Amino acid sequence: xxxxxxxxxxxxxxxxxxxxxxxxxxxxxxxxxxxxxxxxxxxxxxxxxxxxxxxxxxxxxxxxxxxxxxxxxxxxxxxxxxxxxxxxxxxxxxxxxxxxxxxxxxxxxxxxxxxxxxxxxxxxxxxxxxxxxxxxxxxxxxxxxxxxxxx
Length: 151
What we know:
- This protein has 151 residues and is of the alpha+beta class.
- The chain has a domain at 29-57 and 80-133: Carboxypeptidase-like, regulatory domain (Immunoglobulin-like), CATH 2.60.40.1120.
- It is 17% helix and 36% strand.
- It has two helices and eight strands; from the N terminus they run αβββαβββββ.
- The strands form two sheets. Strands 1, 2, 5 and 8 form a four-stranded mixed β-sheet that branches. The chain has a four-stranded antiparallel β-sheet with strand order 4-3-6-7, with no helix packed on it.
- A hairpin with a 3-residue loop joins strand 6 (102-110) and strand 7 (114-122).
- The radius of gyration is 23 Å and the shape is flat.
- The protein starts with a helix and ends in an 18-residue tail after the last strand.
């Protein structure tokens, strides 16, 4: 019994090690980095806030389960904290280190300058370079919005 347990444990450890190695880069790392530059009208943006987020999955309303509370559907989803953050330097450059391999969205904002975003894929042991041009924030529509009853 003890021998079977020991062999089973050894097999599980070996399989876990092999699975980990297949997702790691040749140098043994399973993370990468994102480097980038933030510009506005061809000039670097200093002090912009850079946030790394997982890409949003689009939810289709077709076939979606009905909500039990109608007010829940009108609520905005809770804000998810960023996976990593950075601030641009004097040259508008930033670095996000130790990012797990995968697909992400990089969001950038700078008060008074606008905002921008870019999709990026990170490979283990690699650095992905992106450039983001800030766009002016869209002015909020000042017209009154109708409620659910059309009032």
